[in-house]
Amino acid sequence: MANIKSIKTTPYQDQKPGTSGLRKRVPVFQQPNYVENFVQSIFDSLEGFEGQTLVIGGDGRYYNDVAIQKAIKIAAGNGFGKVMVGRDGLLSTPAASHIIRHYKAFGGLVLSASHNPGGPDGDFGIKYNIGNGGPAPEKITDAAFARTKVIDSYKMVEAPDVALGHIGTQRVGDMVVEVIDPVADYAALMETLFDFTAIRALFASGFRMRFDAMHAITGPYAHRILEEMLGAPEGTVINGTPSQDFGGGHPDPNLVYAKDLYDLLMSPDGPDFGAASDGDGDRNLIIGKNRFVTPSDSLAILAANAALAPGYATGIAGIARSMPTSAAADKVAEKRGLEMHETPTGWKFFGNLLDAGRVTICGEESAGTGSNHVREKDGLWAVLLWLNILAARKQSVDEIVRDHWQTYGRNYYTRHDYEEVDAAVANTLMDDLRAKLPGLVGQSFDDDLTVAYADDFTYHDPVDGSTSSKQGIRIGFTDGSRIVFRLSGTGTVGATLRLYLERYEAADGRHDLDTQTALEPLVGLADRLAGIRERTGRQSPSVIT
Ligand code: G16
């Protein structure tokens, strides 16, 4: 019989999962029983997993190796029949989602704080995914949070640490632990979706690419798929070895943290195509030679061209985007007669629509795109779909983007982040703005901006009927322009105020303006409406994407 111990503990009051699981600084996770309490609280909120399989993997950041041993022993203590874990405890978030689905596991634990920095003073995180491979819905995360506030014991098998360095099977108490190759199943899935022969021919013709894995989890995946399977020259993948602190960097693939890649693609001798992914491999950055593609545009272009890839050859059922994401994808859906859905921020809201077959492609402005192949956003998937489209259309990224705008119009789009703002100041700013909303409709600003609607976004899930309110303040104008205010749910210090700005220019309109210039009037108006500068004391955003 397994040596299962029930160990006494005292609750923490701050284990509320945010947009994507529980994320805190490493020293917070290192407090006695902090991991144990949270993992046990998740299991206490689930039913029917006895004897079933749990997938566990992480992005390899600092504390991954410690937390994973605790999670495995608690899973054994709670009666799971088997744990599948990536070698060295590694699995990208989309690969974990695929493994859960492929092996019909009960669920999975993803150990990651995604794009947040890592290291002893960096961030760590734990997220639970359900049997469809996607992040747990609010019903489960709310129940887990309620449990964390009262938990008084957890169950664990007392056993030596599991050796995670080699593929194979071992036991912890009565539970089987299978260590698997983190890349193989995912790479095989990609091969079923994309025209690898055409992409191989593209590389063989001299097409040059640079993929920046940012010292994070996609390194092994990108080396295997791009260089070994698709024949991209060695050196195509840079920063390809995962490190515990991401080489001291910030593994967020945007124009601030992947600036070197951007500069390279804008240089005369730069490659044809540049891409990057984040800490846990679910985000993507796409840059063509002399052309950065905004994530919102990328979603629209991928949806419009998906049928060029074998996995989507019969067409897509519909598209979903998070509310702050630009309406570029809506234009595609409108023209093609596809279902279009607007959901709150966070991938968990796409799960029901994907499971119900209502949508095939989903995306968020925060560099996340994905499809029904898994239930997470998927950085390398987006890169491979772009490569498939480039191979099929035999055009440059710039030509494809311009052509798209000429067909559907251009949605100028930017996001301004004010990070580590005092939480009380940020909440008051949002409350005061919310109070103003009813009076804004019909008002005109700067001669040509008339407010068509102003509300706090509420989502009604059309599949399970659940409602999620207070998901971000939207102020929409009669010309299609829009200002959105939201507080981040993934930050670990103070509050992050996100300001999302959008302006639509029709197919025959001007598409060559500088984005920040095109959106300047909206930036000014947002500040006047919310008093951002005055209240936060910040003269400019910390990050512009
Ligand atoms: C941010 C983004 C969201 C994204 C979330 C999780 O949330 O705005 O669009 O879904 O991160 O992404 P990841 O798992 O890559 O961290 P928030 O609440 O900070 O705006």
TrEMBL record:
It catalyses: alpha-D-glucose 1-phosphate = alpha-D-glucose 6-phosphate. GO terms for molecular function: phosphoglucomutase activity. Its cofactor is Mg(2+). Residues 15-153, 185-287, 296-408 form the Alpha-D-phosphohexomutase alpha/beta/alpha domain. Residues 1-18 have a biased composition (Polar residues). Its EC number is 5.4.2.2. Residues 1-23 are annotated as: Disordered. Keywords: Isomerase, Magnesium, Metal-binding, Phosphoprotein. Belongs to the phosphohexose mutase family. This is phosphoglucomutase (alpha-D-glucose-1,6-bisphosphate-dependent).
